[in-house]
Design a protein that fits this description.
Blueprint (H helix, E strand, L loop, with lengths): L1 E10 L2 E7 L4 E5 L6 H12 L18 E8 L2 E5 L13 H8 E2 L9 H13 L3 H15 L17 H25 L1 H53 L5 H81 L2 H24 L4 H43 L9 H64 L4 H29 L8 H8 L13 H24 L1 H18 L11 H49 L2 H8 L4 E7 L4 E6 L4 E3 L5 H20 L5 E5 L7 H16 L3 E6 L2 H6 L1 H6 L2 E5 L1
Parallel strand pairs: 3-11, 3-12, 6-10, 10-11
Antiparallel strand pairs: 1-2, 1-4, 4-5, 7-8, 8-9
């Protein structure tokens, strides 16, 4: 059995990895996390598709790998996983394959090695140790016994059997003690007296029950009569259901409200009339005022547009003229003097020719000063004329409005008077407009108030009409008369309800009396020969009370006895038979039955226990004889030989300690060391020897493969070389090895073999 080709197309992060035409010794070298462990998991899952979980820790990738394995088995090439699991082609279990031919995570240790060696031995010798174990387990399960001490189990699946049996033994002792006390105190006779007393009580209770039937029959008869009368009254009241104190009060309130609203409406109408009259008067006055304001407005527009500008111009010119007229007298005197000088210069020129030059000079100067003075005087007169023209224009503009005056002062006063008059008329107009606005606003408010009042009066009339329509009453007086009749009937109905409450002893006012009476109908023909009276019922109840009191005294005497019975009842149902139907314990007879049931329970399980022990003892003797053969497998195998060679002769022998179910090694000096106490390197060497030897035993004359994941990380240089030599020897005998590693020292040790091709190097 050897690999011919490995193809892993997709397995988690491992993609497109293959090993074509693998050799005998294949060194698959790669760094950490390169996918070595994933490759081993993928190979396992393709070989053991249905048993993938048997390879512990192979759950990192949930899906099944895509790819295939081609193996040569007995000269035939087969392809996995197409042909199913490996056990379909070779007699090999997943457990044996995992613990023999595959080393994962650098751990050579064999998982559950005791069971493993038993499986190997059974395979090789035909031992039935596993079947014997299964029989022993089945026997223990039937008898509910523990594995080690063969004592009763005390776990949940067994129902806490050990505790239940212990509790049953304790309760049996309590029951025997209690039965003895019952005999000593005569509680049996007391129980019989109680039974006779109970019979008397039952007879009295029957008499009282008959009286109760008679009482209920009487209730039925009286209640039925009262209920019929109540129904009649209820129908009459129902006909007057629309009449109520609340509605009567509402009608009265509506009448009062309507009268008040009607008075308010009349008052509003009077106010509205008064404001309309005032509005008419204000409108008349406003027409007169606006007419006068229009007249004054025209004058004001002329005054503002023409007169006032002329007045301003006139005042400006007067101011200028006033300054100029201050030198008028000087100019006039200068002019006169210039005329005189001109005349004198003429006379001088005529009469004094020698002064002709001077006369011309004086006459010229006089002429110049005189011309200037008279020109200035002319200019002043002209400006006075312009001012007079403006004044005349103002007079002409004001004349159409009845304003006259010769002087500017008179005109200005007249203008001021006109302005004041215009303001007075405007003020009067503003007051009239305010009065008008107020009157109009009040008329609108009163109109809304009137509408609200009219609407409310209309609604009140509708509400009153609605009450009239519902009640058919013509007026409020008629409504009150009908309401009074209804209230008298309601009083009568209340009395009938009270009678029914008294008869049937209930408090609810809205009870369904038909239903209650129907519940008593069954008593209508009951105890017809019995007349119920409170006196008869009282006498019977008194007699019953005395009997019950006597019964209580007797029961008090038995109270402790019953407490003991109840305690035993509670204990036996809770601690011994918790899952069975509840078992009562009320009498001494019940107590005796319980004792018998407990005896049967203890006896049954004790018998099963003894029988189970006998069967287990028989099978244990057979198993001891069979398991002696497990030790022989180490004697007949090459474990010791291989281990001795790997360790350089330090350990000479390997055997299996059957009693302690562990492997032991013997040193050259004879010292025996359990495998668990070996050093890490020696431990790996031992388990490599075991796996190789067991593989040879399992496959017999055939050879197979070993898949090793860095198995020798604890070995030093010398041990590692010897271990690798052992593997090379193994492959030389026809075995195939897939050795996965990331250690350079492994590669270095095998470098000569890699060069010769004895070892095939595959990079991962």
């Amino acid at each position: 059995m050897r690999f011919k080709r490995i193809e892993i197309d997709d397995y988690g992060p491992l993609q497109g990895w293959s090993l074509k035409e693998p050799g005998d010794f294949n060194l698959l070298f790669g760094r950490n996390e390169a996918g070595k462990t994933l490759a081993i998991e993928a190979i396992w899952k393709m070989l053991w598709k249905k048993h993938a979980r048997k390879l512990r820790g192979a759950e990192r990738v949930e899906e099944h790998p895509r790819g295939f394995l081609r193996l040569e088995i007995d000269g035939e090439e087969v392809r996995f996983p197409d042909v199913g699991n490996l056990d379909s082609k070779i007699d090999l279990t997943p457990e044996l394959c995992r613990n023999t031919f595959i080393v994962r995570n650098s751990d050579l240790f064999i998982e559950n090695e005791g069971d493993y060696f038993t499986q190997v031995t059974s395979r090789l010798t035909g031992l039935k140790s596993a079947e014997i174990d299964n029989v022993e387990v089945a026997v223990r399960e039937i008898a509910l016994l523990t594995r080690e001490k063969l004592d009763f189990k005390n776990d949940a699946p067994s129902g806490k059997l050990k505790s239940r049996i212990e509790n049953a033994r304790g309760l049996r002792e309590e029951i025997e003690s209690l039965l003895q006390r019952i005999k000593e105190k005569g509680w049996d006779e007391l129980e019989r007296e109680l039974v006779r007393n109970i019979e008397k009580i039952q007879l009295l209770e029957q008499d009282l029950e008959k009286l109760e039937l008679a009482r209920k029959r009487k209730r039925y008869e009286e209640g039925k009569e009262a209920n019929e009368e109540l129904k009649k009254i209820a129908r009459k009241i129902s006909d007057l259901k629309e009449f109520s104190r609340e509605e009567a009060a509402e009608w009265r309130e509506l009448n009062a409200e309507r009268q008040g609203k009607a008075r308010d409406l009349e008052k509003s109408r009077g106010e509205e009339k008064e404001f309309k009259r005032e509005l008419k008067e204000v409108d008349g006055e406003l027409q007169e005022v606006e007419s006068e304001i229009n007249r004054l407005g025209k004058a004001k527009r002329v005054i503002d547009g023409e007169v006032l500008p002329d007045l301003k111009e006139m005042e400006r010119k007067e101011e200028q003229l006033t300054g100029k007229k201050k030198g008028e007298n000087f100019l006039r005197n200068t002019g006169i003097a210039s005329l005189i000088l001109i005349v004198l210069s003429g006379l001088l020129a005529v009469f004094v020719p020698d002064l002709l030059y001077y006369s011309y000079a004086i006459g010229g100067l006089a002429l110049i000063f005189g011309a200037y003075s008279w020109f200035r005087i002319y200019t002043l007169k002209k400006e006075e004329g312009e001012i007079g023209g403006i004044l005349n224009r103002i007079k002409n503009n004001l004349q159409p409005f009845g304003i006259s005056g010769e002087e500017k002062k008179e005109l200005v006063m007249a203008l001021e008077k006109l302005q004041q008059e215009h303001q007075d008329w405007e003020s009067k107009k503003s007051n009239l407009e305010k009065r008008k606005t107020y009157a109009e606003r009040r008329i609108q408010e009163i109109s809304r108030e009137k509408k609200d009042l009219e609407d409310r009066i209309g609604k009140i009339d509708l509400e009153i009409d609605e009450i009239k329509k519902k009640s058919t009453a013509e007026d409020l007086d008629q409504y009150f008369q009908t309401l009074k009749r209804k209230e008298e009937m309601e009083k009568k109905r209340t009395k009938l309800v009270y009678d029914l409450q008294r008869i049937f002893q209930v408090r609810g006012e809205n009870e369904d009396w038909d239903e209650i009476i129907e519940g008593y109908r069954q008593y209508g023909d009951q105890a017809l020969d019995q007349e119920y009276t409170p006196q008869t019922a009282g006498e019977k109840e008194e007699e019953l009370g005395k009997l019950r009191e006597m019964q209580k005294k007797k029961e008090d005497e038995l109270e402790q006895f019953r407490k003991d019975l109840k305690e035993i009842e509670r204990e036996i149902n809770k601690e011994v038979f918790p899952e069975e139907e509840y078992i009562p314990c009320n009498t001494s007879l019940d107590l005796q039955e319980l004792k018998k049931k407990i005896d049967d329970f203890i006896s049954s399980h004790e018998t099963n226990k003894e029988r189970a022990k006998l069967v287990i003892d028989i099978f244990s003797e057979i198993k001891v004889e069979e398991e002696e053969k497990v030790s022989e497998i180490f004697t007949d195998s090459r474990v010791g030989e291989i281990f001795s060679r790997i360790t350089g002769g330090r350990y000479t022998q390997v055997s299996y300690d059957r009693e302690n179910r562990e492997i032991i090694a013997r040193e050259e000096g004879g010292k025996i060391i359990p495998a668990r106490n070996l050093s890490g390197g020696a431990f790996d060497q031992l388990y490599l020897a075991i796996r190789v030897a067991m593989g040879e035993k399992i496959l017999g004359e055939k050879t197979g493969f070993f898949i090793l994941d860095d198995p020798f990380i604890k070995a030093d240089q010398d041990r590692l070389k010897r271990l690798l030599d052992t593997i090379k020897e193994l492959t030389a005998r026809g075995w195939q090895v897939l050795y996965f590693t990331c250690k350079n020292e492994v590669r270095e040790i095998l470098s000569p073999s890699l060069e010769t091709g004895e070892v095939k190097l595959v990079e991962i």
